[in-house]
Design brief:
By secondary structure, the chain is of the alpha/beta class. Helix content is 32%, strand content 32%.
Amino acid sequence: MDAQTWNERYDTPELIWSGSPNQFLPQQVEGLEVGTVLDLACGEGRNAVWLGTQGWEITGVDFSEVGIAKAKKLAADNDITGTWVTADATTWSPPLDGFDLVLVFYLQLPATERRAAVKTAISSLAIDGTFVLVAHDLLNLTQGFGGPQDANVLVTSEGIIADITAAEIDLDVELVIERAERIDRAVSTPDGDRNAIDTLVRVHRVA
């Protein structure tokens, strides 16, 4: 989906998703020293804004200018000041000093574009920084609920690790894999709770 498609999808009076953070985010940042954070492909900004309420200095990047506008409003509604950039996650050039935390949540792209976005994320990491990726897992297509119904944009932890390893070599950085696994996510529906299957990968950059 291109930027115009997402502009049209985000062009609603209300948020498409809630203003609350993704359910996996709080536990993934627990214990991290508060610093700078990049939310790459931030959409309407809910994860970045929540981190702003926790004291993080936030930057959100998304290729949808409508999404960025809604993120700015959500930040203002929560008395949060952030940096918001309209740019493509696959081609954006991050600042040289990097970020203490980089997030990529549910950026579902074909393999070539996904590898480019992962490389952008890794290149955005400061030394001692943490990268967290959450995405719809390939297994969700047949055994889970919701999410894209196109195998070409679904992921596996093995595929994400391969992307990260390629970025590590290209960028000449050293990374430690802290988590790489499938995780279940409860989804409330009118017919009761359903189970979605996601991939979660967490990486730490060392000196």
